[in-house]
Design goal:
7 helices, 8-stranded antiparallel sheet, alpha+beta
Length: 334
């Protein structure tokens, strides 16, 4: 019968790789072919690795069992059917657990764990260093912009003054807080409305007009804003077009429109340029180029022909088209 023998404590193993006697994991147990016999007067003892014995029968009925010296070692193995193994000398199996504890164990387990921990810590250190360097590189690219001096925007020390149109005319000068185009509204509006008719617009007479005039009194000077505004409701592009001019001088302050769709944005820009007296294909090409920029960056400012043009572009949840807002005024660069 094939029997597993623990190489640590010489006890029989019931499990394939585990010894219940010394509680050890055994990768390669020793296998022995043991036969338990009771044949005649030369029968073997049933104990593991027992020596052959001779039985002497006496007249008084007693039996004496003595180890056999006559039987050859080779014959003994042949008789018993035991395979030949050379086992090292081991401590007595009576105290197997203690003997197993005293046996030398394989070295290197702690060293392997220590090396693995070092590798893991090294990896964490490398990753942390990379993240730190990235953060430092990003920080170097950040330009710290100083906070603006809010005193120049602070109107708490000023007094707001409202003017009627009669008071504006009595003052006899245009406002000082707005830039002015070199065209009065009375010259611009007739040409503008003709251009709207050329676009087949049906809303030429659909507009509203308001006037608001005020100023800030800073004690040492008064900054004035005299504005009259006419706003057209547009049926083409479903938006509006606003013309603002100085209440006193009637010079144009600002022209702005808000429409859905790039096609209408380009059309109303052409209308505006024609009404201002600009007939230059280069202006159209530049405007189309800046529209594309605004679509990518949401807004853009640019100057051309003494004009400052602002374009903003954004999505509208009520329309599949993009919304374009365009403002045209006099440039600071004169």
């Amino acid at each position: 019968m094939k029997t597993r023998i623990c190489p640590l404590c010489d006890q029989t193993m019931k499990k394939k790789h585990y010894c219940d006697s010394c509680n050890s994991f055994v990768w390669k147990p020793v296998y022995l072919d043991i036969h338990y016999n009771s044949w005649g007067d030369s029968a073997l003892d049933c104990a593991y690795d027992a020596m052959p014995h001779k039985y002497d029968y006496h007249d008084d009925g007693s039996v004496t069992m003595t180890p056999s010296k006559r039987q050859d070692q080779k014959e003994s193995r042949k008789f018993r059917g035991v395979q030949e193994f050379e086992l090292p000398n081991r401590p007595a199996s009576r105290d197997s657990k203690k003997a197993a504890a005293d046996m030398p164990r394989k070295k290197g387990g702690c060293l392997k764990k220590f090396i693995l921990i070092c590798i893991i810590l090294s990896m964490f250190s490398t990753v942390f260093s990379m993240i730190t360097n990235m953060v430092m590189d990003i920080g170097e690219d950040i330009i710290m912009v100083p906070e603006p001096d809010m005193d120049i925007w602070d109107d708490t020390d000023s007094e707001v003054i409202e003017f009627t149109e009669d008071e504006v005319f009595e003052m006899g000068e245009e406002c000082t807080g707005c830039l002015h185009l070199n065209m009065i509204c009375d010259e611009f509006i007739p040409v503008f409305e003709d251009e709207l008719e050329a676009l087949n617009s049906k809303q030429i007479n659909n507009y509203s007009e308001t006037s608001y005039n005020w100023g800030y009194d800073y004690g040492t000077e008064i900054v004035t804003y005299f504005t009259t505004s006419r706003t057209y409701d547009l049926d083409l592009g479903d938006g509006y077009y606003a013309i603002e001019w100085d209440t006193y001088s009637r010079r144009i302050h600002d022209l702005d429109f808000d429409v859905f769709g790039r096609e209408y944005a380009e059309s109303y820009f052409d209308v505006t340029m024609n009404a201002l007296g600009y007939d230059d294909e280069a202006l159209r090409i530049e405007f189309q180029k800046q529209l594309s920029v605004a679509e990518d960056t949401d807004y853009v400012f640019y100057n051309t022909e003494g004009l400052e043009i602002y374009i903003s572009c954004f999505d509208d949840e009520n329309s599949e088209e993009l919304t374009y807002y365009v403002s045209i005024t006099n440039s600071f660069e004169e």
